[in-house]
Amino acid sequence: MANIFKSTSLTEEQGNTKDNVRVHIPDYTLSPSGLPDHILAVLIGFVGGFVVLFIFYRIIILSIIGGGIFGIVNIFVSMQAATKKRKQKLRMQFFDLLEAMSVAMRAGNPPLKALESAKKDLSLIYPAYADIMVELDLIIGRFNNAVPLSEIFADWAVRSGLEDIESFASVYATIEGKSSRADEIIRETQQIIADKMEIEMEIDTMMTAAKNQLNIMLIMPLVILLVIGYAGAGFMDVIYTEPIGRVAATVGLVILVLSYVLGRRIARIAI
User: Fold this and answer.
1) Are the C-beta atoms of residues 115 and 78 closer than 8 Å to each other?
2) How many CB atoms lie within 10 A of CB 193?
3) What percent of the chain has pLDDT over 70?
4) For the chain, what are the domain ranges?
């Protein structure tokens, strides 16, 4: 398992006894991928790279070397995807936290009681190892050690890299100890996040068909080359035997890769 935690020491006071307790602070900029995930990413990248290069060149050694390179590159791609997925989960969990806190604070509970109530409610939904549960343990523990909530939320915002948490931390730092409308502000923040999520889901739904078309357009040249190459009665032999054919295959491969990269970037819409 990759090291996705930063360690630090906090002093927790229980009664008249103080103990140095080692806690783990999640770092969401690091990938949660472990060794099995890396091995799977290498295998997927190797197979994909080998097949594509063999279709274009039909050179076993080149395909093996290229497949190995694709496999190594795919480790970093999968790590970025895992980090993004983890952040998306944390964002959903943060939304649930704001909802639970808003309910508790509307009932007249102070921030600490609202956090403890939210933790109790979220424990019915999420396991103890979920990121939001770990964060709540950390927040409550630091708050009990006289660390201001504004500072705790600001630290969480930096570690999470999420715009929603950053905005909430900034707003909370402004109103901390100065406003009695904390519950309303938390509820408004939750509503903003809900609106953004709804818009993102609508855009993702509209883009699904376009993404599927992109995948088909990228796969079709490979299928055509494969079919004609093996069923074309030597029609494609010039690509694999003549220098000009190798150049044409290389140009086609470059265009395919560029099309994939540009297509993915175009399909990625940020709100």
Assistant:
1) no
2) 22
3) 86
4) 5-267
H/E element holding 102? helix 60-106
The per-residue pLDDT for range 211-266, each reduced to its tens digit, is 788 888 888 888 888 888 777 667 777 888 888 888 988 998 999 889 888 877 87
User: For 147, left (φ over 0), alpha (ψ -120 to 50), or beta?
Assistant: beta
SS (H, E, C) the chain: CCCCEEEEEEEEEECCEEEEEEEEEECCCCCCCCHHHHHHHHHHHHHHHHHHHHHHHCCHHHHHHHHHHHHHHHHHHHHHHHHHHHHHHHHHHHHHHHHHHHHHHHCCCCHHHHHHHHHHHHCCCCCCCCHHHHHHHHHHHHHHCCCCHHHHHHHHHHHHCCHHHHHHHHHHHHHCCCCCCHHHHHHHHHHHHHHHHHHHHHHHHHHHHHHHHHHHHHHHHHHHHHHHHHHCCCCCHHHHHCHHHHHHHHHHHHHHHHHHHHHHHHHCCCC
| Range 159-185 average pLDDT | 80
For residues 115 and 21, what is the distance between their CA atoms, to the nearest angstrom? 21
Q: Is the dihedral of CA 59, 63, 66, 70 positive or negative?
A: positive
pTM score, two decimals? 0.77
Does residue 66 surpass a pLDDT of 70?
Answer: yes
Question: How many Cβ atoms sit within 10 Å of the Cβ of residue 145?
Answer: 12
Q: Is the pLDDT of residue 65 over 60?
A: yes
Which pLDDT band, with edges at 50, 70 and 90, does 10 fall under? very low
